[in-house]
Specification:
- This is CarboxypepD_reg-like domain-containing protein.
- Keywords: Signal.
- InterPro entries: CarboxyPept-like_regulatory.
- The protein is mostly beta strands and 768 residues long.
- The chain folds into 3 domains: 82 residues, Immunoglobulins (Immunoglobulin-like), CATH 2.60.40.10; 106 residues, TonB-dependent receptor, plug domain (Ferric Hydroxamate Uptake Protein, Chain A, domain 1, Beta Complex); 525 residues, Beta Barrel (Maltoporin, Chain A), CATH 2.40.170.
- The chain has 5 helices and 48 strands.
- The chain has a 28-stranded antiparallel β-sheet that branches.
- The longest helix has 16 residues.
- The radius of gyration is 29 Å and the shape is globular.
- The chain starts with a helix and ends in a 20-residue tail after the last strand.
Length: 768
């Protein structure tokens, strides 16, 4: 009995020695005393060995459970703020540490860094918290996106375009505001606190493939002047240049952005066509000469923002986009081999586009975590297009096709959204209406005036709730589309339900399912009641009888993280019911290419992305094998296509030096009867970054002699294969120089959650 008592006492003493305690606290900003969300908080041993980590909630709160007795250390780090360390001695019971204030830092500090890229998985989005190493390795918002190596996000190193691996468009936002890529490039990486990656956008975002929302701190005094200049050494006609300026005074912010993208290169085309007439088959082989491709993109915006202590915000933005393309990408000078004849081909297309717009936005926060948001955007599009096509035998008068199009479009977009947050969920509802008038005047081969009225109304309601490890979102929406042209009109109603489910069984394991029914309208150019010659054998014809399309999507994704390895799995099956796809027929001696509502279109996209961190936070490697499968069921054809490939990237950073290398195999898409085979890309870039400036040099496509794209039409009646390549872009030696002049203090900015734009000119072109 005596031995039993001693054993019990020893066990009790041992238990008390490792008693479990709870540490709680709140992280706030030094100046505003408001809670900071998604701040990284780590629990370390007294000699700085990692024990566990967490991030703060929407109010800045954090907690650590099951903390053993003794000494420990807490570190609190947030990009753009000074790191705070708190030593705790002789912990014996639950400890509330109270408010921990973070002070803004104008320079990137050393200190504790997160070794893996912190990613928080949510039902409707991923929340990415850039590490200090990633921020230090970046010069702007777009280069930061490269260092993050996000799954399914593709950045073309040649033109900096961003899209999803399935080809869908990506929408940029800053603090909820839809912005241009130039405004993202103007961002200071040190001001970016997190990026919300909506890889399964909700009903409020419409049909966009993904949304990248940069959450940044806003200055309350002083401002910024910045430039990011990228130009080619080996191809003098290549440049991507951005200039930005901001000035803050109390509650007001004034900003200006300018972008100039230029190309003056030479491309060569090879076309192979097969025309099956009722009584014979004609083969045409076209070998092109290097032909100029030249354009200048000039985009400019002025914005004024008035923010009243997070209660309300007014934002007014004036934008003007201008594009001048004297030599189009489709231009060509070629020799055409047709039987025993050799013809000369000349195809020239020039265009100009001016798009001024005014965006007025207002947001007001109310009691009980409610908010109202309103957005009105007026846009005017003025477009000019001229095309001259000629083909001739030697010493004969050329047969020519000439067309000119003068287009005008006026549109007004209005939108309103109501939000309400609850303890374990939130509700959103809204309505959006677009009214547009299009007037295109055709001359040359066709003399006609086309006028179209378009209206689209969309309403939605969405509820999201969290139940422990399970999240769900239920949504319902309805869309009405209407268009009228020369007394004819179409009207369609589309019901849009959606469901998103996510489950987090463990901290490092995440599952999500997303299913929805949506719809989209035919493009304005396809609705034109116009026939335009393509060449002497082919005609492109519009179809005002096209109907809106219903779209069904099912997506499943899973993520697993463990120390130095992260794995993302993604699979999607989607189906377009009665899709608007191409058709080809033979009529009056010519092949007519038009658009029709066909039976259906199926697509399966599958990819697995593996990220490895072999050496602390200094090196990150991501490899992504992918598989695309398409089934196109037309009214008179069925086509299938399978594409397998791989993408890879390497990011290395040490002190002020950075190195990036990327490689992508060709990604294929099938739509209707057309297979698009995108270019193979690879690049390497070495840079040196300081707080206020950076310089980098690199090479695009160093392992190939030509930069190539291919489009194949597999029509049985009039099939073709078009190859376009440029030796000016393989390889391209690039130099990037950026600088930034910052002054003033910063504080957390209120989010603007709506922004709309209209850039569709609705022109039917006869180009190949």
């Amino acid at each position: 009995m005596k031995h039993m008592i001693i054993l019990c006492i020893a066990s009790l003493v041992s238990f008390m020695a490792v008693a479990q305690n709870k540490i709680t606290g709140r992280v706030v900003e030094e100046e505003t005393k408001s809670g900071l969300e998604f701040v990284t908080v780590q629990l370390l041993t007294s000699d700085s060995l990692f024990v566990k980590g967490t991030v703060t909630d929407a109010k800045g709160n954090f907690s650590f459970d099951n903390v053993v007795n003794g000494n420990c250390r807490i570190t609190v780090s947030y990009v753009g703020y000074e790191t705070v360390c708190i030593d705790i001695w002789n912990l014996e019971k639950n400890l509330p540490v109270g408010d921990i204030a973070l002070l803004n830092s104008g320079v990137m500090l050393e200190g504790v860094t997160v070794r893996a890229n912190p990613v928080l998985k949510k039902t409707d989005r991923q929340i990415i918290l850039p590490t200090q190493a990633q921020v230090k390795a970046s010069t702007n918002g777009l280069s930061l996106l490269r260092t993050l190596q996000l799954s399914r996000i593709l950045i073309n190193p040649v033109d900096n375009s961003v899209k999803l691996s399935g080809g869908e468009s990506v929408q940029f936002r800053i603090n909820g505001v839809e912005v241009t890529q130039a405004e993202v490039i103007a961002l200071n990486p040190a001001d970016i606190t997190k990026i919300e990656y909506h890889d399964n956008p909700g009903l409020r975002y419409g049909n966009v493939g993904a949304v990248l929302d940069y959450i940044v701190k806003r200055k309350d005094s002083g401002g910024t002047i910045a430039a990011d200049l990228s130009n080619a050494l080996s191809a003098n006609g290549y440049g991507e240049n951005n200039l930005s300026a901001k000035y803050n005074y109390r509650k007001s912010e004034f900003s200006a952005y300018a972008y100039w993208g230029r190309r003056d290169l030479k491309w060569t085309r090879e076309n192979y066509e097969t025309f099956r007439f009722p009584d014979n088959t004609l083969e045409r082989r076209e070998i092109g000469k290097p032909t100029p491709v030249k354009y200048d993109d000039l985009n400019f915006s002025l914005a004024y923002n008035l923010q009243d202590d997070d209660r309300q915000m007014l934002n007014v933005t004036l934008r003007n986009n201008y594009n001048d393309t004297p030599n189009s990408f489709s231009d060509r000078e070629s020799s055409l081999y047709q039987g025993e004849d050799i013809l000369s081909i000349s195809d020239r297309l020039s265009s100009k586009l001016r798009v001024p717009s005014l965006d007025v936005y207002y947001q007001r926060k109310m009691k009980n975590q409610q908010s109202l948001t309103f957005n009105v955007v007026g846009t005017y599009l003025n477009s000019e297009n001229t095309r001259t096509y000629q083909e001739s035998l030697p010493e004969e008068t050329p047969s020519a096709v000439y067309s000119s199009i003068d287009g005008k479009k006026y549109s007004l977009i209005t939108e309103g959204i109501y939000d309400k947050k609850f303890k374990n969920g939130k509700f959103s509802g809204g309505i959006k209406h677009t009214q547009a008038y299009l007037s295109n005047e055709y001359s040359g081969a066709v003399e006609e005036q086309v006028e179209v009225n378009i209206a689209e109304t969309y309403a939605f309601a969405e509820y999201q709730r969290n139940i422990k490890k399970f999240d769900y979102t239920l949504g319902i929406g309805a869309m009405r589309t209407y268009n009228s042209q020369e007394g004819k009109h179409n009207e369609t109603y589309i019901f849009k339900p959606s469901v998103r489910l996510s489950y987090t069984p463990k901290e490092n394991l995440f599952f999500r399912y997303n299913g929805y029914i949506s719809g989209y309208s035919p493009s304005l150019s396809d609705l034109n009641d116009i026939s335009q010659p393509i060449d002497l054998l082919q005609v492109r014809r519009g179809n005002p009888g096209l109907k809106s399309v219903r779209f069904y999507s099912n997506t499943f994704s899973a993520s697993w993280m463990h120390k130095k390895v992260a794995v993302d799995f993604f699979v999607r099956y989607s189906y377009d019911h009665k899709p608007v796809m191409e058709s080809t027929c033979f009529e009056n001696g010519k092949f007519v290419r038009t658009m029709e509502n066909h039976k259906g279109f199926h697509r399966i996209n599958l990819e697995t992305s593996v990220q490895i961190l072999p050496w602390k936070e200094y090196i990150a490697i991501r490899v992504t094998p992918f598989l695309n499968r398409y089934i196109s069921r037309g009214n008179t054809y069925t086509h299938t296509h399978t594409n397998f490939g791989v993408r890879g990237s390497l990011m290395a950073a040490y002190k002020n030096w950075t190195f990036m290398a990327e490689m992508n195999t060709s990604n294929h898409t099938l739509w209707g009867e057309t297979i698009t085979k995108e270019e193979k890309l690879h690049s390497m870039m070495l840079g040196y970054n300081k707080d206020k400036w950076s310089v980098s040099a690199g090479v695009l496509n160093p392992f190939t002699k030509r930069y190539e794209q291919e489009i194949e039409n597999i029509s049985q009646l009039a099939g073709s294969r078009q190859v376009a390549f440029s030796t000016n872009l393989s390889p391209v030696f690039m130099v990037n120089v950026s600088f930034r002049l910052d002054f003033g203090r910063t504080y957390k900015s209120q989010n603007k959650v709506l922004n709309n734009s209209d850039t569709n000119a609705g022109i039917l072109s006869g180009k190949k």
